[in-house]
Specification:
alpha/beta; 54% helix; BTB domain-containing protein; SKP1/BTB/POZ_sf
Length: 326
């Protein structure tokens, strides 16, 4: 095929656009994705990707497509994904290692194609980025909550499309799923969940979990505030004052569960705030036992979170993560 006669199965030549920054006149391979064409180094791609190496090492048939005297390859990927994938391979400062910032489209495109074309070093870099936004331990989650959220994660939340769980399923990244699903429950309405392109099984898991997270899971997290006729701690020095304070704070915390359709629900890991301890007027022994009970409830909830979404326990997920990132 020459420049004026593209393959009939693709687009007419006047419909094609050369990719800005990815058309190198001295290179000998032309790639097409959708209506975009790229001219890059055949040897460089073969060096980076065993899939491309195998593809390009095959002797071309006599009917092989050519463009501008170069071998021509059509990729069934989106032009956007191919663009960010090639830029990440070629330009060292385009997709830098974590904690350098990146965008959602760049992260997704790099993840998809580095996985598909087996560019392991690039896939690992992308996995570090996405893993940083999905802690796998309660301690890491607490530290992560105190930091500004990465721009790509905020983009994913704003889109309301369950993009990250879908990506995790497609590319075998199960360790991000507990927090990815937790985010979906927090930020997506049931209508958005039902309209998302997730599988029916995942939609069912998320909607079922939403009810648990807003209901019994929050109640169990606040059980340390229950007050009865007996002091919370046998060493309590002011039973009546402690009982009144705990009851009042329980009422305040329960009030946070009330919301309109325009606000996100308050879930177990957010229902009790660090500053709430300062508003409790209880004696020292009661405060100490309440903090122990609360931390126990948080740990129990965290340990149960993967099972809520029918996933393996955290220790198995962390092993998979370590294996992928080594």
């Amino acid at each position: 095929m020459d420049l004026d006669s593209p393959p009939t199965t693709l687009y007419n030549m006047d419909e094609l656009t050369r990719a800005p920054d990815l058309w190198f006149e001295d290179c000998g391979l032309i790639i097409q994705a959708e209506k975009t064409i790229f001219r890059v180094s055949r040897d460089f791609l073969a060096l980076q990707s065993p899939v491309f190496r195998d593809m390009l090492s095959l002797p071309p048939p006599k009917t092989a497509d050519m463009m501008l005297g170069c071998p021509f390859v059509f990729l069934p990927d989106s032009a956007q994904d191919v663009t960010v994938f090639l830029k990440a391979l070629i330009f060292h400062d385009f997709f830098e290692p974590y904690p350098a910032p990146t965008s959602l489209d760049v992260l997704i495109g790099v993840l998809r194609l580095s996985h598909k074309y087996e560019v392991h070093s690039l896939r690992k870099r992308a996995l570090v980025h996405i893993s940083a936004g999905h802690p796998t331990s309660l301690e890491a989650y607490d530290a992560w909550e105190q930091e500004p959220q990465p721009a790509w994660l905020l983009e994913a939340i704003d889109r309301n499309e369950a993009l990250l769980p879908i990506l995790a399923r497609q590319l075998s990244i199960p360790w991000i799923l507990p927090i990815a699903f937790y985010h979906d429950c927090k930020h997506m309405s049931e209508r958005c969940i039902l309209k998302s392109p997730q599988s029916l099984e995942d939609k069912t898991l998320v909607i079922t979990a939403c009810r648990t997270l807003e209901g019994t899971a929050v109640s169990e997290m606040l059980n340390f505030l229950w007050a009865d006729d007996e002091p919370e701690d046998e060493d309590c020095v002011s039973p009546i004052r402690c009982m009144v304070s705990r009851t009042g704070m329980r009422r305040i915390a329960e009030g946070r569960r009330e919301r309109s359709t325009a606000t996100a629900p308050i879930f177990p890991l957010e229902i009790w705030r660090p500053e709430d301890w300062d508003a409790l007027f209880v004696c020292g022994p009661c405060l100490a036992s309440m903090k122990d009970a609360y931390e126990g409830a948080r740990k129990a909830f965290w340990d149960d979170l993967p099972d809520m979404f029918d996933l393996p326990p955290w220790d198995e997920l962390e092993k998979l993560k370590a294996e992928a990132l080594k």
